[in-house]
Amino acid sequence: MGRKWNNIKEKKASKDANTSRVYSKFALEIYVVARQGEPDPESNQALKFVLERAKTYNVPRNIIDRAIEKAKGSSDESYDELRYEGFGPNGSMIIVDALTNNVNRTASNVRAAFGKNGGNMGVSGSVSYMFDATAVIGLEGKTADDILEILMEEDLDVRDIIEEDDSVIIYAEPDQFHAVQQALKNAGINEFTVAEQTMLAQTDVELDGEAKAQFEKLIDALEDLEDVQRVYHNVDLED
User: Fold this and answer.
1) Same domain, yes or no, for 88 and 206?
2) Alpha-carbon distance 139 to 166, whole Å?
3) What is the CATH number of the domain that holds 188?
4) pTM (2 decimals)?
5) In this predicted model, what pLDDT tens digit does every residue of 43-54 receive, in sequence order?
6) Nearest CA to 118 among 228, 205, 215?
7) Contact 90, 214 (CB under 8 A)
8) CA pair distance 152, 161, nearest whole angstrom
9) HSE of 47 in the Cβ direction (CA atoms, 13 Å)?
10) Which of 58, 101, 103, 199 is deepest in the core (most CB within 10 A)?
């Protein structure tokens, strides 16, 4: 799964390069999740997960606090969670997750981003069957054997544990995310390089030259859309 982790690192590095966009997207996601349940991460597991993920992107505390305070207010603003699927050049596949208060606007903008950048929208299910929902947790300062021992003590059997560069990466079932992270925290591990619920492609494709440049332009166009929260794909963008 190493190449899949490389795609996550590439995507994270891209988002880190545009912090204002990252922060605004997290602010909206925190607001929506806090509105859906209690605005307290101790009683709202979905909110707790978003805050853990926000921490790995260094989202400032004041942005988080403002979003939670807004959720405590009397606003009747509502958002829909949407998923779009589509294709890029040379068999590339893309999943787009959005939060929006205007479904027609978002659908139109996503369709236009695909159409103007060499891609096309697909129907629901046309791409997602080639991806697996996966919890990914990364950390430094430990070996894969260390982590395996910690998880075995908690009777947790995950998909895979690998060492890559200076990190240990844990791949687990989505519903194991909180249990795995809590086991690590119980062992004194409180800092994570990644804490994601993501969609990993079952197989990657490689693009070269013009096709790769066009694909990257398409991904940038999608991620630049205000309503788009996350974009997943099956292209190995490692140089």
Assistant:
1) yes
2) 9
3) 3.30.70.980
4) 0.89
5) 888 899 999 999
6) 215
7) no
8) 12
9) 21
10) 199
Same domain, 47 and 142: no
Same domain? For 138 and 98 the reply is no
pLDDT number for residue 42: 86
Residue 10 to residue 7: CA distance in whole angstroms: 5
Residues 151 and 194 reside in one and the same domain: yes
Q: Which of 35, 33, 54, 32 is CA-nearest to residue 45?
A: 33
CB 5 within 8 A of CB 235: no
Residues 38, 71: Cα–Cα separation, whole Å: 9
Domain that holds residue 48: 2-72
> Who wins on pLDDT, 127 or 13?
127
- Residue type at position 206: E
pLDDT one-digit tens code per residue, 189-211: 999 999 999 999 999 999 988 99
Q: If 0-12 CB within 10 Å is exposed, 13-18 middle and 19+ buried, where does residue 166 land?
A: exposed
Residue 226, amino acid: E
pLDDT at position 237: 77
DSSP 3-state percent helix, strand, coil across the chain (nearest 5): 50, 25, 30
Count of domains in the chain?
3
Mean pLDDT over all residues of the chain? Answer: 89
Give the domain-ending residue among 37, 56, 72.
Answer: 72
Mean pLDDT on 211-226? 93
Q: In what order do the strands lie in the sheet with 120-122?
A: 120-122, 80-87, 93-100, 228-233
